[in-house]
Amino acid sequence: MAKEGFDYIIVGAGTAGCLLANRLTADPTKRVLLIEAGGKDDYHWVHIPVGYLHCIGNPRTDWCFNTEPEPGLNGRSLRYPRGKVLGGSSSINGMIYMRGQSRDYEHWADVTGDDTWRWERVLRAFRRHEHHWRLDKPETAPEGFADLHGHRGEWRVEQQRLRWPILDAFAAACSQAGIPATGDFNAGNNEGVGYFEVNQKKGLRWNTAKAFLRPTTFGRPNFELWTGAQVRRLRLMRDDATGLRCSGVEVMTPHGIEQPWLNSGGEVILTAGAVGSPQILQLSGLGPAELLQGLGIKVEQDLPGVGANLQDHLQVRAVYKVQGGKTLNLRSASLFGKAMIGLEYALRRSGPMSMAPSQLGAFTRSSPDKVWPDLQYHVQPLSLDAFGEPLHGFDAFTASVCNLKPTSRGTIHITSPDAGVAPAIRPNYLATEVDRQVAVESLKLTRRIVAQPALAAFKPEEYRPGPLVQTDEALAKVAGDIATTIFHPVGTCRMGRKDDPGAVLDSRLRVRGVSGLRVADASVMPTITSGNTNSPTLMIAEKLAGWLAG
Predict the structure, then answer these.
(1) Which segments constitute the Glucose-methanol-choline oxidoreductase N-terminal domain (predicted)?
(2) Domain range annotation of the chain
């Protein structure tokens, strides 16, 4: 395959990798190789919004990881979806456009000692690739909106194409419970309730492969894409003058093992995600020395933070039966109902097939002493026992709520020197008393919202966790029974100050002690953002692209 060296080798054609490939190939003098272990995004369910139901758990599009049994979840193991296709997790995720809160980035700047991560600076990167629907007609946008949002970028943000009366009622109940309505979750403080905006275009999923690879990047002669190509390890060289340096990668392709190399001054950029990037580093001898020695891997650089600091959003799923209001449970139960749903989508690109997994959102506080919102709701007009199982045979809605700033920390560590063996994923959910108490308070808050007059006409009846679960102790235990990941793993190659022993990267995303090697994906976050993590990952890639372009 490779007959010449590359100036940049990007490992992982997911959210960050697609943007970086676009930005770096804009310089015609730079040769760029983008490597993706999965396949092309030509599966039709990738592009139909409701197709996440067919993509998650499907080995064609998902790595199909599972966590180790979790003590905080009463011994349960959770499915841990990660995209295995062009576009990465942007091809199978919930499509929600969410930046987080300004405080997230102020904290990153503090812990890295680099003001480039402050809110006002990252806002420029968010705006550069954003294409917001409100600015299609700027005269109708709220005052100051264009200062916060972009319109000429590749990353399309649209309104959802359907509403549900039960969700409108839940939003009204939130307002009655003291959570104000909001028209913009992305202005720096996302407190409030409203419908999520989504990364869709005319009723189709808008993944990063569409946004950043097609058509511009694919047409550039200095760009090369390998799919079905799994990186086994990084190629590292050491000499007295330059120390440890990354010179390329070793890749298993359909044609056998390939070893693309870097031109002088080139860089390898890992964009394989919070699971894949630490796995590749560890396979290459960059990680905790004790772990690597135990697996017979030569320690090239002892970096104890590789695979540590895993953070994720754990959602506690409360389910309420309702009367007199349509939900997806019964609407999709009959062949006629399914046929009508399909016809609506075919004719209008609207209806349930255009749905993001969650439509209504709310951000609020678990207790009055919180300065910032620390809870996020994802509310859905449907219910089921577990993801991948059939919808319930009664009308119901689900109010899932997650702790935005968990204090529990987990790990992702390889268990074999073989790149084909999945790493052990231990999120360590609900490991701290603080996280358990937030889970308890979030269930209590959900009950207060549902008890408001706005929902009374639907006669909501608590199905999960159930009205008999009342004490804090019982609520904490049931949270472990009904909680599940909302698929936001971050932090496993975190950046930090030079004197921070747990930092894997410096503030410009360079791997400690290794020249020619950076990481640019959700794994670099020191702490998790206050909301969905896909768009912050794009921002990280945008920042790096700007630095590399000079």
Answers:
(1) 83-106, 273-287
(2) 6-94+208-311+489-549, 161-195+314-403+428-485
The CATH fold assigned to 161-195+314-403+428-485 is: Cholesterol Oxidase; domain 2 (3.30.410)
pTM of the predicted structure, to 2 decimals: 0.97
DSSP assignment, residue 477? Answer: H
> Are 130 and 539 within 8 A, CB to CB?
no
Neighbours of 66 (CB within 10 A): 12
Per residue in 271-313, pLDDT (tens digit) is 999 999 999 999 999 999 999 999 999 999 999 999 999 999 9
Tell me, yes or no, if 392 is annotated catalytic: no
Identity (one letter) of the amino acid at 218? Answer: F
The full 3-state SS of 403-466, as one line of letters, equals ECCCCCCEEEECCCCCCCCCCEEECCCCCCHHHHHHHHHHHHHHHHHHCCHHHHHHCCEEEECC
Residue 465: asked if its preceding bond is cis (omega within 30°), the reply is yes
Sequence-ordered alpha helix ranges (H) in 100-194: 102-112, 119-129, 145-148, 165-176
The active-site residue out of 132, 313, 378, 488 is 488
| DSSP string for 222-264 | TEEEE-S-EEEEEEEEEETTTEEEEEEEEEEETTEEE--BEEE
CATH homologous superfamily of 6-94+208-311+489-549 equals: FAD/NAD(P)-binding domain (3.50.50.60)
What is the C-alpha separation between 409 and 415, in angstroms, rounded?
19
Q: What are phi and psi of 160, to 5 degrees?
A: -70, 155
pLDDT score recorded for residue 125: 98
| C-alpha torsion 134→139→140→145, nearest 10 | 50
Inter-residue contact 217 to 22 (CB < 8 Å): yes
Structure confidence by residue, pLDDT tens digits, 84-131: 999 999 999 999 999 999 999 999 999 999 999 999 999 999 999 999
Closest CA to 534 of 14, 38, 183, 90: 90
